[in-house]
Automatic annotation (TrEMBL):
It comes from Methanoculleus submarinus. This is 3-hexulose-6-phosphate synthase. CDD domains: KGPDC_HPS (cd04726), RraA_family (cd16841). Belongs to the HPS/KGPDC family. HPS subfamily. It catalyses: D-ribulose 5-phosphate + formaldehyde = D-arabino-hex-3-ulose 6-phosphate. InterPro entries: 3-hexulose-6-phosphate_synth (IPR017553), Aldolase_TIM (IPR013785), Bifunct_HPS/DMK_prd (IPR017120), HPS/KGPDC (IPR041710), OMPdeCOase_dom (IPR001754), RibuloseP-bd_barrel (IPR011060), RraA/RraA-like (IPR005493), RraA/RraA-like_sf (IPR036704). It is an enzyme of class 4 (lyase).
Length: 429
């Protein structure tokens, strides 16, 4: 079998940055350069022309995701310099047939993208029979965020289709190896190369994985373990960015400075600083849970202090968030236990047993249900609805990766406004 091709997907909005990143990716061993759909939507065919001119020795792939007017869109991409043009596998056969005719006329190849196709094996066979040159086992970025896997899709197709198979969707060096072993002829990598601070290094690692695939058995990971791993690797700001700037509690700060708490919420409602329910909740919590206490926002009386912190720490509780005051701050700081509160005050309430454990509460402006995920660090506290926890954790990791490349470009001397083309992307009114 010929060495599989490494295609780098430039899923960016800015052409200048795309050219710079393509240059670095090529130095790391990328063969084909994909003008990603966002770049085409942002810059049009000029992006294809520019990349064609700048990289004369490399195949340019135009990810048009054609859904209609197959002939015209293939013609546009071909005349701009693309050698491979992408069409949606789900498009009507009438569109596919016209696209194939146009591709033959202009001497380019067609790649059909299986994103969201219900029966990928039979559709791939139909597409091959219609004259499509490559099938792309693609799981889109939004689908990846809810846990779909491009490798699973690729494995379903292996040996079933008579044309070369490309694979795309969240691949990195490790999964690129698996993709080659599963029969991929073209390995398409976007985010894990183009969002890296060191694009050349990231591309080189994928290149090496493709050239010398080394498959290590992957450890099974539960959903909850993956959620925790991802949330522990990102910041609270990354998480609220991933939630369209929602989820932040207002006015609550870390009492111990640089600490972090991640875990499902055990909720507590108490009244007037009554510390019975918050302390009983320590026994209800499992290791790794975060206690979230509503104390009516009162800052004049504390339902939490040093002894409770000591007990929570022993039990493996990951942290505590209170919409009110805590006390014994000096001792808590010595323990470096993640405590987040809106105030400090010396006096406690009495343990009368008012309130409830594990009911829905509102804490610092956010609704919190038992089991919702809490991510708290020095910037503050974010609540993630439990049913969206995996998706938000994946998206937060994408936010973090994206910032890595932006940080690198700022380090090289550009301003944040330049990197993000702020003026161009201001909302028009
Ligand atoms: O076509 C795409 C999204 O629709 C991407 O180019 C493709 O998914 C590869 O990027 P990534 O590796 O980040 O998933």
């Amino acid at each position: 079998m010929a060495t599989p091709t490494l295609q780098v997907a430039l899923d960016l909005l800015e052409l200048d940055r795309a050219v710079e990143i393509a240059d670095e990716a090529v130095r790391g061993g990328a063969d084909w350069i994909e003008v990603g759909t966002p770049l085409i939507k942002s810059e049009g065919m000029q992006a294809v022309r520019t990349l064609r001119e700048r990289f004369p020795g490399h195949e340019i792939v135009a990810d048009m995701k054609i859904a209609d007017t197959g002939a015209v869109e293939v013609e546009m991409a071909a005349k701009s310099g693309a050698g491979v043009v992408c069409i949606l596998a789900d498009a009507d056969d009438a569109v596919i047939v016209e696209a194939v005719r146009s591709a033959r006329k202009y001497g380019v190849r067609l790649m059909a993208d299986l994103i969201n196709v219900a029966d990928p094996v039979s559709r791939s066979r139909e597409l091959a029979a219609l004259g499509v040159d490559y099938i792309n086992a693609h799981v889109g970025i939004d689908q990846q965020m809810i846990g779909r896997s491009s490798l699973d899709l690729l494995r379903r197709l292996a040996g079933e289709v008579g044309v070369p198979i490309a694979v795309a969707g969240g691949l990195d060096a490790e999964t690129a190896s698996e993709a080659v072993a599963a029969g991929a002829s073209v390995v398409i990598v976007g985010g894990n190369i183009v969002k890296a601070a060191d694009v050349t290094g990231a591309a080189r690692r994928v290149r090496e994985a493709i050239d010398r695939p080394e498959i290590r058995p992957r450890e099974e990971e539960s959903r909850d373990a993956a959620i925790r791993r991802l949330f522990e690797a990102v910041s609270a700001p990354n998480v609220t960015d991933a939630m369209h700037r929602k989820g932040s509690m207002a006015g609550v700060v870390s009492i111990c400075g640089r600490v972090k708490a991640v875990g499902p919420a055990v909720t507590v409602r108490t009244l007037a600083g009554d510390w019975a329910k918050p302390v009983e909740a320590i026994d209800v919590a499992a290791p790794g849970d975060v206690l979230v206490v509503r104390n009516e926002g009162r800052t004049d009386v504390a339902p939490w202090g040093e002894l409770a912190t000591h007990s929570a720490k022993n039990r493996g509780v990951a942290g505590i968030v209170i919409d009110g005051a805590v006390r014994d701050v000096d001792d808590i700081r010595e323990m470096k236990f993640p405590v987040f509160a809106t105030a400090t005050v010396p006096n406690a309430g009495d343990p009368k047993g008012l309130g409830e454990i594990n009911t829905e509460i509102v804490c610092c402006g956010q609704e919190v249900r038992p089991g919702d995920w809490i991510v708290a660090d020095e910037s503050g506290v974010v609540v993630v609805p439990r049913e969206r926890a995996y998706e938000v954790a994946r998206r937060a990791m994408e936010v973090r990766k994206n910032e890595e490349r932006i940080r690198e470009e700022i380090r090289r001397g550009r301003t944040l406004s330049e990197v993000s083309e702020l003026l161009k992307w201001e909302k028009r009114h």
